[in-house]
Amino acid sequence: MRKNAAPSHAISGVFVFLLLGIFAVFSTVMVVLGAKAYKGTADRAAEHNAGRIAGAYMRSMVRSDDEEGAVTLEDISGVHTVALHNVYDGEAYLTRLYVYGGMLREWFSYAEADFVPEDGEPVCEADDMEAAMQPGLLTVRLKHQDAWTTVDVALRAAAD
Hints:
Low-confidence stretches: none
Order of helices and strands: HEEEEEEEE
Largest sheet: 5 strands, antiparallel
Helix content: 25-40%
Number of strands: 8
Number of helices: 1
């Protein structure tokens, strides 16, 4: 008796599994490369944003308190601060902007209160700060992860 069945080929089964294996390997490689590219882009964006946030925060704080003689630079126990002097309801207050413990911080208190750097509110990450004053201009340099951001703020009240 004759059978009409076609003979099976072991080679065709191996070829299908080989193609599936190659597809799986290339798919995995593409996912790994895509994840590395995304991580690099996200890290660069976070580093860039940290500098922009610190600079914008510093600029807005100084401009909000820009009055004649209200902005000074002070060095207290080795901590460089930008000091913003204000009077609210007849009481003298002081806002200090400084870098301490890897963070740009804001410290707001009565003008007579003792400055305690640890008590400042963290704003964003920063490693170092340098500040300089010229007539009518405050220049602040903020360092974050080996990159410096320079903020120049024109003191408008000083021009009056």
